[in-house]
Amino acid sequence: MQNGxxxxxxxxxxxxxxxxxxxxxTPFQNRHASSTREDLEFIIKELRRxxxxxxxxxxxxxTSIGTQKSGNLYQWFERTPMVLxxxxxxxxxxxxxxxxxxxxxxxxxxNDQQPYVSYTFDPALIxxxxxxxxxxxxxxxxxxxxxxxxxxxxxxxxxxxxFNHLLHSKQLETLSxxxxxxxRPDPRSxxx
Length: 192
Known about the structure:
The protein is an alpha+beta fold.
């Protein structure tokens, strides 16, 4: 696994997606969504409005979640439970009251033997988080987190988390394309 996403269990007993926790110091407020699908579709719509070339990538990614269709760039494989990927920097940056981590998804890049991006995911853990009160947002954060690994290196963990937060913020729909370009981090140029 090259990169992975998951959740940390906090003292309130709830599971929170890593980017949600890592980006808590940003000035943006999270948007409320009644479903994960609604939230992801909103982000795609806003990226189109903002003229972000990543909008079509995200749309392809979202329509592929959980599937293994021949010819798709993204392929998904269920794995329950998943082995926790250890990232020391992540442990150091999570809040001290969020100490137990759970792996929910993993990302593997395209290579010569595999002409697609593959993902593993734990449907049981994802269902558990979906059933938390008001938490389609956490699943949306997870899917965007996984998608962003196509454009950012693991060393850009904080930048990717902050961008994920921007995409989930109330402020996204108020930004002009010019203002958005000032806030949007530059992904790896070979992938855009």
